[in-house]
Design goal:
Elements (H helix, E strand, L loop, with lengths): L11 H4 L21 E16 L2 E2 L10 H10 L4 E2 L9 E11 L2 E7 L2 E19 H8 L11 E4 L3 E20 L3 E31 L2 E14 L15 E14 L10 E15 L3 E14 L9 H12 L8 E3 L2 E4 L3 E11 L2 E10 L12 E10 L3 E4 L2 E5 L3 E5 L1 E5 L2 E7 L11 E13 L12
Antiparallel strand pairs: 1-4, 1-5, 1-24, 2-3, 4-6, 5-6, 6-8, 7-9, 8-9, 9-10, 9-11, 10-13, 11-12, 12-15, 12-16, 13-14, 16-17, 17-18, 18-19, 18-20, 19-22, 20-21, 22-23, 23-24
Length: 458
């Protein structure tokens, strides 16, 4: 199993459009070169994606378009059930979440065949890879399920990576070559990353038994983990969310073929992009730890009271190292890689306003390094596209440890768009195991158009 991956920014029903504006550069930074738009102001959009093989909510428990119920049920912990199989406690599962808010951003033509842009985004991704059912169920039940007590379990495969960051991007795109029929475009995005929070768990080798609320026993166990100071969320301010910094980059090319020189549209375009190259070093109120012991006894664990995450770290260290509360600390910083991806896009103009898009997204692993990874996605998206209206139907296959089919829909009315690559659970078509939903608004003026904003009748 390749494991579970986290992603953001793909929004297949929106970003492949010729009217995507600066949003299209998140899938390929060369997309804004020679754009149909003179300029674009992206006011606000948000995206959330959840997919997993462990948790589910019956469709009877989620009302039609029940986003509020999902949020309240997740916070109140009264919505989801698990697929834990007590006959196969070592079965491996995957869980992933991602979210993104793209704030005020823009692009504009600075001269013929040259465009620049700026983006400001808040991104968060998290993944749990290959967690065994016994560990997942114990975590789900806060170790309080009597059915799992007094049994020897092992966890030797789980890996967790999660991070959140602010991202500031500077975009530049240009037409490198054009003879009227064929055109080659290139684009680059340079990004400054401000790390807000992060956590990782790796090299898990845990052999444990939960006696009851009075004791957890470990034998021949070890694990590495790191985290930022989550107590900072109790004191929200810019300083408390500033845990580190890093840099990233996107690079992309697009080839466009037209039927004849000077034609307004194209027969097809093919793009290739390398996205999210880079990493963030978390070095402010951050720490890395290693736990190892031939035997350890966490006595009276349920009665323990922790004033913060540092006290929890010190307690675990004392449990594994015979009372030494500082021995587990191995460093005051760690590095998290961004979800580096290669993306291929092919778009065909079928007839008039009808198009078909093929997009392939391939995530890169990071080996033993910490970092989040995108899933592999293979999609076909037919769409109807005009200045004022657009409808697309993304159909995709996603692989993150197992194959998962997705069928979505996206609609743009003037400057507003809404959609999802996997909205079935919101429409009560199936149990809630995955959800992908996005919406936003951006204001644009088409190229060669000097009139007032279009679609004012909407």
């Amino acid at each position: 199993m390749t494991g579970l991956h986290a992603w953001a920014q793909q929004d297949l029903g929106a970003w492949n459009s010729n009217y995507a504006g600066i949003g299209g550069s998140l899938l390929n930074p060369s997309s804004i070169a020679g754009s149909k738009l003179e300029w674009d102001i992206h006011l606000l959009s948000a995206q959330v994606d959840f997919a997993n093989t462990f948790l589910y909510a019956p469709k009877s428990a989620v009302p039609f378009f029940g986003i509020r119920r999902i949020i309240k049920g997740s916070i109140g912990e009264n919505l989801f059930l698990t697929r834990y199989d007590p006959m196969n406690p070592d079965k491996r599962y995957q869980v992933v979440f991602s979210g993104e808010v793209l704030g005020p951003s823009f692009f504009m033509k600075i001269k013929k065949k040259h465009e620049i842009g700026l983006t400001a985004a808040l991104r968060a991704v998290g993944n749990i890879r290959n967690i065994t059912g016994n560990a997942g169920q114990n975590a789900f039940d806060y170790l309080l399920s009597g059915n799992l007590w007094n049994t020897d379990y092992r966890e030797r495969s789980a890996r967790i990576n999660g991070m959140g960051w602010m991202e500031w991007g500077l975009h530049y795109a240009t037409v490198l070559y054009g003879d009227g029929t064929d055109e080659l475009k290139a684009g680059i995005t340079l990004k400054y990353e401000q790390g807000m929070f992060a956590v990782y768990v790796k090299n898990t080798n845990l052999n444990y038994r939960i006696q009851d609320t009075t004791g957890i026993f470990f034998t021949n166990s070890s694990v590495d983990y790191g985290r930022t100071d989550f107590d900072d969320f109790r004191r929200p301010s810019f300083h408390h969310f500033d845990h580190g910094h890093g840099f990233g980059a996107d690079l992309g090319f697009t080839f466009v073929h037209r039927q004849s020189p000077g034609a307004d549209g194209y027969l097809y375009r093919i793009g290739l992009a390398l996205l999210d190259i880079g990493a963030i070093r978390y070095d402010r109120n951050s720490a890395a730890y290693h736990l190892a012991a031939a035997s350890a006894d966490f006595s009276n664990w349920h009665a323990s009271q922790f004033s913060g995450n540092t006290q929890l770290d010190q307690t675990l260290s004392a449990v594994f190292y015979g009372g030494d509360s500082s021995r587990s600390l191995t460093g005051n910083s760690f590095r998290m890689a961004l979800p580096t991806t290669i993306s291929l896009q092919a778009d065909w103009a079928i007839n008039g306003p009808f198009f078909a898009d093929l997009t392939i997204i391939q995530g890169f692993g990071h080996g033993d390094r910490n970092g989040v990874v995108r899933p592999d996605v293979y999609s076909i998206t037919p769409r109807y596209e005009t200045k004022c209206w657009e409808v697309s139907l993304p159909l995709s296959l996603m692989y993150y440890g197992h194959w998962q089919t997705r069928a979505g829909i996206a609609v743009r009315a003037g400057y507003f768009f809404i959609g999802g690559d996997a909205p079935g659970a919101l429409f009560k078509l199936n149990d809630l195991r995955q959800v992908d939903f996005y919406a936003g608004i951006h204001y644009f003026i088409p190229a060669k158009s000097k009139q007032a904003p279009i679609c004012t009748h909407l």
